[in-house]
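3.2 Worked example (two chains)
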Amino acid sequence: MIDPLLPLVISTALALLFFMAARHKLSDNRRFQAQLAAYQIVPESLLALSAKALPWLEMSLVFALLIPVTRPIAALVAATLLVVYALAMAVNMSRGRSEIDCGCGDIPQTLSPMLLLRNAVLATGALVLVVPVLDRAITTIDLIFVALFTAVLATAYLMVELLVRNHSVLKNFGLRK
């Protein structure tokens, strides 16, 4: 059993991540459909439907991760989705197609092993949410901790994304191997 703060922090951080991912896809669905098409995995006949359904699945995870009753199922769906995204990236990288946009956010980012590692870490975090939780009262101090630690995780995530993106840019200019 784990302390209830850990699932609160992880579920809040994952909900924020899926909210931003869904927002990006919903704000420019044509662009997301083009990004999805570039992977050359989804059949053409399912491309438009997939491009419309994926962001709504991610948005539903935002709410399901935050509700304790639905959290374990949402965690399994989130982990599965993150692994599927990583597999799609890995398939394209193995095909020598690492220069396509991952479709991860507003700023284009090419596929890389770091994105695979990122998704593996996020999927592992999601799986922590299925571990039984100790029964103890949550205090105001606990909620402040959850908010602060979630902010720290979000900032760390953004910093890692920026480092990965910069590495890709330097690699494209021949400044990195």
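3.2.1 Second chain
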Amino acid sequence: MIKVIIAGAAGRMGQRVAHMVGEHPRLTYAAAFEAADNKYIGRDVGELISANRIGVVIREGLEAVIAQGDVIIDFTFHKATMEFARLAAKHKTAMVIGTTGLSPENLEELKDLARNFPCVQSPNMSICVNVMFKLAKKTAAILGDDFDIEILEAHHNKKKDAPSGTALKLGEMAAAGVNRNLKEVGVFARNGIIGERKPREIGIQSIRAADIVGEHTIYFAGPGERLEISHRAHSRDHFAKGAATAAAWIVGKGCGVYDMVDVLGLQDF
């Protein structure tokens, strides 16, 4: 069995990841940790996910548990994630990173660190969303420059970053389909007298409200018609299930940064 360490074990995603790890035939929940000020440190994680103790106690910090597992699953916060990656590189322990908000500088550092350990990093672990990434690129390439591309994303009011990592990835894939660079053509806010929309723009807009788990729609709008591709998350379980799938896949792989396209075998899709 592959031994899993869960970061942010007391949080909403940590608890759902724990459930999916328990459902996976090749994984076992080996260790859990939280930030130093978390009130659940010292508690059995089973009390949080099922009310029954499972013998895994939440410890303070990754360093306290890293020797106990084969792979770390992390859905925490980008600053913490980078600290975990540095420690994983030192110990050569595999990681699955679902944290969003990683900067280009973070991703460059992660690529450098991953020369010492294998890592799956994706802004979205959902199988359907990763199919959507592929569809965004293919659709943009087929429809071409006659169609305006706009992306709308919606999440709960506790989400700390905007636009979502998923929306940015959709923008990057669509831009690649029409030979553009999202850094050059992306528009992330519109207000006031802005003039006509530039033909090569790719707009990404964000909604934050209540308990929306996650919704993304990419619009391809042309003369007299439009095509919409949407994904709506009903719960966090599909993210957690994807992370568990990635954890089972990454252990034993060579050093480097992989994504869910690699995990799911979608390279040629």
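3.3 Remarks
The chain is about 35% helix and 25% strand.
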